[in-house]
Specification:
Structural class of chain C: alpha/beta
Number of helices of chain A: 12
Oligomer: heterotrimer
Strand content of chain A: under 5%
Helix content of chain C: 40-55%
Largest sheet of chain C: 6 strands, mixed
Shape of chain A: elongated
Radius of gyration of chain A: 23 Å
Number of strands of chain A: 2
Chains: A mainly alpha (312), B alpha/beta (282), C alpha/beta (292)
Shape of chain C: globular
Distance between the termini of chain A: 30 Å
Structural class of chain A: mainly alpha
Number of strands of chain C: 10
Amino acid sequence: MSVAEKRPLAEASHVMAALQRIWQGARLNWATTTGAVIVLVAIGAAIFAPLIAPYDPIEIAIENKLLPPSAEFWLGTDHGGRDILSRVIWGARASLTVSLLAVVIGVTGGVLIGLFAAYHSGSWVEQIVMRAIDAIASIPLLIWAIAIIGIVGVDSVGIGPFTFTNVHKLLILIGLLYMPTLARITHAVAQVEMTSDYVKARRVQGAGNLAIMFGDVLPNCLSPLIVQATLLVAIGIVVEASVSFVGLGVQPPTPSWGSMLADARNYVFSGEWWLPVFPGAAISLTVIGFNLLGDGLRDVLDPRRSTGRLLT
Amino acid sequence: MTALLLDVRDLRVSFPMANGMTEAVRGVSFSVAPGEAIGIVGESGSGKSVSALAVMRLVAQPGRITGGEILFEGRDLAALDEKAMRTVRGRHISMVFQDPLSSLNPAFTIGQQLVDTVRAHRPAATREAARDRAVEVLELVGITEAGRRLTSYPHEFSGGMRQRVMIALAIACEPKLLIADEPTTALDVTIQAQVVALLWQLREKLGLSVLFISHNLDLVAEICDRVYVMHTGNVVEHGDVEDIFLRPQHSYTRMLQNCIPRIEGVEPWSAAARSSTGEVAP
Amino acid sequence: MTSQREPEILLEFVKARKEFVLDDGLINRLTGKRRLLRALDDVSLTVRRGEIVGLVGESGSGKSTLAQAAVRLLTVDEGYVNYRGENLASARGGALKDFRRSVQMVFQDTGSSLNPRKTVGRALDESLALRGLARARRAERSNELLNLVGLEGALRQRYPHQLSGGQRQRVAIARCLALEPEFLVADEPVASLDVSLQSQIIRLLLKLRNELGLTLLFISHDLALVSHISTRVAVMHAGRIVEEGPPETVLRSPSDPYTRALLAAIPKGIKGRRARRESALLSASAHKEAAE
């Protein structure tokens, strides 16, 4: 046991206590554990793709065209003779970059908007913010994404010293489109928390508004937000795949699960089943993984709930 | 000596916890004679409510009755199957809970709820007969213009009126025993007095037996004949209400009694202020 | 007037009114059909230094609104709420900061008055920081405060849900004391506790009042309880203060019918039972006579 672990609980930070609860809870629940393992494998594949992918995912080797799964190419090859396994591993990069960073953007913006609206609870400011959010959220995410990328185009855009590739545009766009959902959740939970006695007590004690919103209200909104965030990662994977499928997402030759599926379209009925099945399975598994993890976290994150409950 | 209506012997109720079973009720015995009102007094966690729920066989899962007999008119309720138990609930024994708002279904009028309750136990009764009975019990619990109030929804009643409706529901099928679990705790003091007076009247008019559960010894003493004092799952003292009240033997009973502030013995402040410890006069 | 100097007035309500809109909504707003609840109706009340003023009322009487107005969680529509002669509605900046230190509040629901995600130590730490105590001294002071309310310092590492209701209320009181207030508003501080804990918390409040020279505004639905601990009792009904005076006067010769109803409603224990018995016998014999 390391020195750090021996320190008493009070010294450990808030995050440490939360992690401890996650660990204690997750250990007991097979569904959460399964979800966490899938998520870790996917993230590991994305990070270590250059090390673990057996072949180059982009270089075309026509002589190996459309080979079925074998000892040499475990998941077979595509019409360009590229190894499907390597492309699925590299594809995790595109999928997870888009979905995870989009959620980070979405949570940051959504929380700020939601807390802002909740702070102005009862005033016209709240009304305007929340109605605007309703308007945006009334059109489905995927339609927004396809429409806007369709208008803006898939080419890289340079703004000052930064170059935005289509992947960057996509993840920022999805992040922006997540904000309404997360802002609504934050607003709803924060509004309830703000009427609670502990917030009143802080006000009576003279704590500042920012300290109350971020130090008291926000931590109590986190459970539903984290759960929603994990579910949105799953949605992000599907959105990226869908947008790439219609050719507006990750641009060839960069592999992504969605564009691999799009490429496989022509081979579905001609017997090359391994082309659509493996990227499809990668999408499904990762989505299930994030969903399981999200469900598990919901039960574990709340300090009021005892970890013993997960036994039953 | 008349036959007992309810005779609970050595009742045990346990709840599984992370580290084994925890006994909430540890071998409790109590009895109710026909027409008698008994009180069970104790604080939260004493096992008083769990004991009452056990009589109705309504202990919340995963808790369960692990021992003892619950003899109601000689039949052991602990051994009945769930189907037979359903005919006992409401028909022979009924119950009133602490929170009248969550005990009534907000989606139905109180008339519908009363008629359904009556017909559930008397399938032969016509809709008109059930409706008449509903009006009758509403009048019995002191709700004026009962016929008109049948079409009202629970939220249209005040807290005290809702508890009257709950009592009407409970007595609609002429049960022999009414279990009242902290029926006045959620109510204002003035409304509490009305509900207690109502329970007393029902005893006199209908010969109803009452099992009254409360944390307030003064309240229990107002309407009960005998009292059981419960503490950490055990009955620590029981007996005639006058004995328990005037000559409590157990220190816990004395403590419970001393904790209730009473309007007698309020000294002019100067006298109480003299004790710098801030001792509260019992 | 008496020549004896009375203690300084700390809190003062002057003809205070507060209304709440019950069914707010666009349609009701446009049609002007809004029902109003008058929570405070022309309320005047003074609390002098060192007093324990007990405010009695049932649900909906406006007593909690009064409590919140007293600590400026809300401001009144008409009239004034003054603290040491300063109108609270116009207090800003430094004056408001001073007020926040001087007046603290104990809440009813021990389950929600502490932030469930903060340990006891962290909660006290934050309050001591607001008091301006140096970081290095906070742990020691937290221990002192916990000891003052009858708890052990080891509880600093606990979360609220790991404490009993009585312990939570003690922590809530310690949190108030961290700011070293002179005035404590206690809104039903014992209503959610078991009877044995109730008297412990009451004793604690009175002990602290005597040791620290606190002034108390004690709000409760329980007339008997309030009478025992207050130097002055005020009875509230439908937004108005209907009766005010020393407890023994209010109990022995109540002038308002509502106070009399409250008094009559207090469970009388065995006496109440005997009275019921007698009246039952009387009515039975009356029945008999009528039948004969």
